[in-house]
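Notebook, bench 3.
Goal today: get a predicted structure for Putative RNA polymerase sigma factor FecI from Achromobacter animicus so we can plan the truncation constructs. The sequence was checked against the plasmid map this morning, with no discrepancies at the termini. Length recorded as 171 residues. Pasting the sequence as submitted so the record is complete.
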Amino acid sequence: MSSSRPGAPACIESLYCDHHGWLQEWLRRRLGNTFDAADIAHDTFVRLFRNQEPICEPRAFLTTIARGLVINHWRRQDLERAYRDTLATVADTLHPSPEDRALLMDALSELDALLNQLNPKARTAFLLAHLEGLGYVEIAARLAVSERMVKKYMAQAMLHCLTSSLAATAP
């Protein structure tokens, strides 16, 4: 297909008609689930339509977007599975309501997406400090960096979380 711009209605319709079936089947083979494949195919086209750049290779572009969404889907499933496993070990009286669980899962997903915007070492340093309770010296040893670098990673992570939080609450 020649270079096309997703903003034009005729182009959007053409891209969707030409590639939706192929993309959904591609996703179904990877996910093993028609429903998730349909959801991710939809989300892929939503992201494609927001793009304002010309697209020379629509299938390659769709595949790139879809791969990222599939990774996010799997990451969310892993997060939900870990949460359910942890919840199963907690006493029945401490189980949150379904609404609280949904809110918590959304918050965890948002935090996961936020942390995935960091460079890998900054993300790892942040997680080691906050989830495993390690000190900067221990984190430095695990990451094979200086303690000073760990401080920089932690500052980057905290600043990123703070600015994202402020941006989300700004009117």
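The first helix runs from residue 9 to 31. Confidence is low (pLDDT under 50) at residues 1-6.
Flagging this for group meeting.
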